[in-house]
């Protein structure tokens, strides 16, 4: 497993991170979730990403159980705060001081750890002054409950403003966690150049576009039984945007490139995002241990320039790249 620095910081993480959005505590039974985490550890994955909102806190609990007994210093555990949790009362959401300071305590208890390596603002909070949010995060770091801070799905101007405050407060804002794949490239125009300038790295989610880039969804055909597109617990909603025939036809044109490179289509997709020099890690999810094994192999792959050009030519008509699509809700 390749180990990379997260942005310009001294924190080293595995190039493949294991994430449990839509799986632990929801789509996947606990025994299967534990098996997937065990396989991730066996593959050399040391970085684990979750959030308090996943399965309304249950995902953190499952991950805590899965990592219990592991050497804490050998792991990088990330979580996030913003979305409503618990009963969703007025202070159960957002990035106000009360919610941040209460949420970190809940996350640590569920994860069974004294600290997280990275605590992330899951979206930008339009209803709270940024100064209040950043001071609360700074206090979390100074209390030893988080070592570093990051953001997720923030726009370039929001990242720049937060980084200026973090510098003033002398706390390390080191990362952004955006959606990124060879179909969804909205970060390339503004977010990546800004983060590169500021020394922040990307920890990208959905590098396989919710499974569409695995090639298992075929144009003109119903989704395979048991796939994410048939999941009624949330998976089908998130993948629906990609299940258009024009997208699926383009994806199938990638198959010869993957075969020529000796890769599965999923490995091709993960390897592609990892070749962006601002990407520190790609987050993979899994419902079966063998999926972890397959995707972890992408960490060692380097695609040549001809392959990268061919990929771009194939998917160009269906790529989404508008920076304005990075948006945070007004809670």
From TrEMBL:
<dbReference type="InterPro" id="IPR020471">
    <property type="entry name" value="AKR"/>
</dbReference>
<keyword id="KW-0521">NADP</keyword>
<dbReference type="InterPro" id="IPR036812">
    <property type="entry name" value="NAD(P)_OxRdtase_dom_sf"/>
</dbReference>
<dbReference type="InterPro" id="IPR005399">
    <property type="entry name" value="K_chnl_volt-dep_bsu_KCNAB-rel"/>
</dbReference>
<protein>
    <submittedName>
        <fullName>Aldo/keto reductase</fullName>
    </submittedName>
</protein>
<feature type="domain" description="NADP-dependent oxidoreductase">
    <location>
        <begin position="16"/>
        <end position="315"/>
    </location>
</feature>
<dbReference type="GO" id="GO:0016491">
    <property type="term" value="F:oxidoreductase activity"/>
</dbReference>
<dbReference type="Pfam" id="PF00248">
    <property type="entry name" value="Aldo_ket_red"/>
</dbReference>
<dbReference type="InterPro" id="IPR023210">
    <property type="entry name" value="NADP_OxRdtase_dom"/>
</dbReference>
<keyword id="KW-0560">Oxidoreductase</keyword>
<comment type="similarity">
    <text>Belongs to the shaker potassium channel beta subunit family.</text>
</comment>
């Amino acid at each position: 497993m390749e180990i990379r620095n997260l942005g310009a910081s001294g924190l080293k993480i595995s190039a493949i991170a294991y994430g449990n959005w839509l799986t632990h505590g929801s789509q996947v039974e606990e025994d299967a979730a534990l098996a997937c985490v065990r396989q991730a550890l066996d593959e050399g994955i040391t970085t684990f990403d979750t959030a308090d909102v996943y399965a309304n806190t249950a995902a953190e609990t499952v991950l805590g159980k899965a990592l219990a007994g592991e050497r804490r210093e050998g792991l990088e555990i990330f979580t996030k705060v913003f979305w409503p949790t618990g009963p969703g009362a007025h202070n159960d959401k957002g990035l106000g001081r009360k919610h941040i300071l209460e949420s970190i305590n809940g996350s640590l208890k569920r994860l069974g750890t004294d600290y997280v390596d990275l605590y992330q603002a899951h979206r930008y909070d339009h209803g709270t002054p940024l100064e209040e949010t950043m001071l609360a995060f700074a206090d979390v770091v100074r209390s030893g409950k988080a070592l570093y801070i990051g953001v997720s799905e923030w726009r370039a101007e929001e990242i720049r403003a937060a980084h200026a405050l973090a510098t003033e407060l002398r706390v390390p804002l080191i990362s952004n966690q955006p959606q990124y794949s060879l179909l969804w490239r909205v970060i390339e125009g503004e977010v990546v150049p800004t983060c590169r300038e500021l020394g922040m790295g990307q920890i990208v989610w959905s590098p396989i576009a919710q499974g569409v880039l695995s090639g298992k969804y075929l144009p003109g055909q119903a989704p395979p039984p048991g796939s994410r597109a048939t999941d009624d617990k949330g998976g089908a909603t998130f993948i629906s945007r990609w299940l258009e025939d024009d997208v699926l036809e383009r994806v199938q044109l990638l198959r010869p490139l993957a075969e020529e490179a000796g890769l599965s289509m999923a490995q091709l997709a993960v390897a592609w995002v990892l070749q962006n020099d601002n990407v520190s890690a790609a987050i993979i999810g899994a419902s079966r241990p063998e999926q972890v094994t397959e995707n972890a192999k992408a960490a060692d792959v380097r695609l040549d320039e001809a392959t990268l050009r061919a990929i771009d030519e194939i998917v160009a008509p269906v790529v989404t790249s508008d920076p304005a699509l990075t948006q945070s809700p007004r809670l």
